[in-house]
Specification:
The chain has 308 residues and is of the alpha+beta class. It folds into 2 domains: 124 residues, lpxc deacetylase, domain 1 (Ribosomal Protein S5, domain 2), CATH 3.30.230; 166 residues, 2-Layer Sandwich (lpxc deacetylase, domain 1), CATH 3.30.1700.10. The chain has 6 helices and 20 strands. The strands form 5 sheets. Strands 11, 12, 13, 14, 15, 19 and 20 form a 7-stranded mixed β-sheet that branches. Strands 2-3-9-4-5 form a 5-stranded mixed β-sheet, covered by helices on one side. Helix 4 links the parallel strand 16 and strand 17. It starts with a strand and ends in a 15-residue tail after the last strand. The structure holds zinc ion (ZN). Zinc ion binds next to helix 1 and helix 5.
């Protein structure tokens, strides 16, 4: 886990954008160490690039939109989640449109695509962001905070305003295996009553029973769930994708109550703000986050042996 990673060879997929409803082709390509995750709009003149960075977060309602110099990339979070989950640090994401394809509404197709490409260790060590003191963001009763710990752990609680769903909680010690098996397959979801409003806002235009769990008054409308608590697991999937915008893996325990993209993005920006502050200060001052280069370790189990 000590080295930066990219993929072995280019891989492609196509699908429709969840919010735009427009078909799009996406190609993932290997990238050099310290590149980070970068999106390239191949459908636009001069193929502009938008990095997955906190300063490029433009919109956070129902999905994350990145923007740089007027160029946007929509709904990046499920792909970013798969990259974070498998520890891929450097990647070029070519898009023939403005939105990442929705696939089945989960991150599983992206995990499968990455495994098909093969994950490649680079020589350079991975740098982590290690939390040293609590950082909290909240809006009323909704909150998300990160506290110091070894490794990355997530506790997530959601109270759904629906008699059949009620309160759901999960806790995960995040590893590549746990991510691929317990988190990546959970699908995005929507409530039937919200669909007219979303469509009026120009959102969920590509949403269907094939790429989202649809919840009506009587319960889930499109067959069975992949896990009894699939909805809150998807919130963890989203959180990991949003945290990927930090550009470096986070080491800490994240505790979220009723949160969503908006609060996740606020946490990302607050962590980045603390980091910028610390970098501008003397090294002797107390720190909240530290950049932590993990020593090079022997090669761990190859990713290709992961079972689902
Ligand atoms: Zn999502």
């Amino acid at each position: 886990m000590g080295h930066q990673r990219t993929i072995q060879k280019p891989v492609s997929c196509q699908g429709i954008g969840l919010h735009s409803g427009v078909p799009v082709r996406m190609t993932l390509k290997p990238a050099l160490a310290n590149t980070g995750i970068v999106f390239q709009r191949r459908d636009l003149p001069e193929s502009p690039i938008v990095g997955a960075r906190p300063e490029n977060i433009q919109a956070v309602h129902h999905a994350i939109t990145l923007e740089k110099k007027g160029v946007t990339v929509r709904t990046v979070e499920h792909l970013l989640s798969a990259l974070a989950g498998l520890g891929v640090d450097n990647l070029l994401v070519e898009l023939e449109g403005g939105e990442v394809p929705a696939m089945d509404g989960s991150a599983r197709p992206f995990v499968e695509l990455l495994l098909q490409a093969g994950v490649r260790r680079l020589f350079q060590p991975k740098t982590y962001l290690k939390v040293k003191r609590r950082i909290l963001v909240q809006e009323g009763k909704r909150s998300v905070q990160v506290v110091p710990s070894e490794g990355l752990k997530v506790f997530y609680t959601m109270s759904f305003d629906h008699p059949l769903l009620g309160e759901q909680s999960v806790a995960f010690n995040i590893s590549r295996e746990i991510y691929a098996r317990e988190i990546a397959p959970s699908r995005t979801f929507g409530f039937l009553k919200d669909v007219p409003y979303l469509r009026e806002m120009g959102l969920a235009l590509g949403g269907s029973m094939e790429n989202a769990i649809l919840v009506g008054e009587e319960g889930v409308l499109n067959g069975g769930l992949r896990y009894p608590d699939e909805l809150v697991r998807h919130k963890v999937l989203d959180l990991l994708g949003d945290l990927c915008l930090l550009g470096k893996p986070l080491v800490g325990t994240v505790i979220a109550h009723g949160a969503g993209h908006s609060l996740h993005a606020q946490l990302v920006k607050e962590i980045q703000r603390q980091l910028d502050l610390e970098e501008a200060q003397e090294a002797s001052l107390p720190t909240v986050i530290e950049k932590w280069v993990k020593p090079l370790l022997p090669i761990s189990e190859p990713l290709e042996t992961l079972a689902f």
